[in-house]
């Protein structure tokens, strides 16, 4: 039984090296997930893979059906998730190419369906419930990622706060100054509500973020052409760390 899933983000809509055994499009009470779930073997481990933005990277961050994605993974028996995501670097050591394993999150998103406990759906007959989210990321999965980073030559920042903005536009310099004052280390657009929905379903979850650029205002305006060019390197590094982490999860 496959219990570990990888959610791929920008630049990781396909998981290179995954020997795909089958794919399943799961129906959920929340609508369709971003794409079929792929089941296969990666680095000797049985894993499921879901491309968050769809298999053609066609769904922008604010239109992703996070509830459907997490519900689909839960309904096929997933108990642990490693989620990859592209981010901008706010802290000085978060330069392009760095992988950051956050230990905290601040949710700046708005207008997203952000809970299964919405008074109607819920889980096991419970429709209203507040989960503990003090530590948003699973410690064992974070350790596996950090050790994976140690075993690779990728520069890894082993803690930090992931500030999640709604997008799809990038932030203003003032928004980044505010996030920095709040203690954010990196900024991305997909970290929430994904992490909270996983917690609501009892799925262990950790995030492996790849810095593609300095956040808005840190090095002047963001060169979006450079940003696209940085996706390959950033995601290759995230993939290297995730692959090495799998060795610690056997
Ligand atoms: N901001 C938000 N999301 C991002 C960024 C950024 O600077 N870079 C990559 N994803």
Question: Would you mind describing this structure in some detail?
Answer:
Helices cover 25% and strands 24% of the residues. With 250 residues, it is α/β, with parallel strands linked by helices. The protein has one domain: Rossmann fold, CATH 3.40.50.1580. Strands 1, 2, 3, 4, 5, 6, 7, 8, 9, 10 and 11 form an 11-stranded mixed sheet that branches. It starts with a strand and ends with a helix.
Present the secondary structure layout.
Elements: E1 4-8, E2 19-24, E3 37-42, E4 45-51, H1 66-75, E5 80-89, E6 99-100, E7 104-107, H2 139-150, E8 156-157, E9 161-164, H3 173-182, E10 186-188, H4 194-200, E11 204-214, H5 224-247
Parallel strand pairs: 1-4, 1-5, 5-11, 6-8, 7-9, 9-10
Antiparallel strand pairs: 2-3, 3-4, 5-10, 6-11
Helix pairs in contact: 2-5
Number of strands: 11
N→C terminal distance: 13 Å
Low-confidence stretches: none
Bound molecules: hypoxanthine
CATH class: Alpha Beta
Properties at a glance:
250 residues, alpha/beta, Rossmann fold, 11-stranded mixed sheet, 5 helices, 25% helix, globular, binds hypoxanthine
How is this structure best summarized?
Helix content is 25%, strand content 24%.
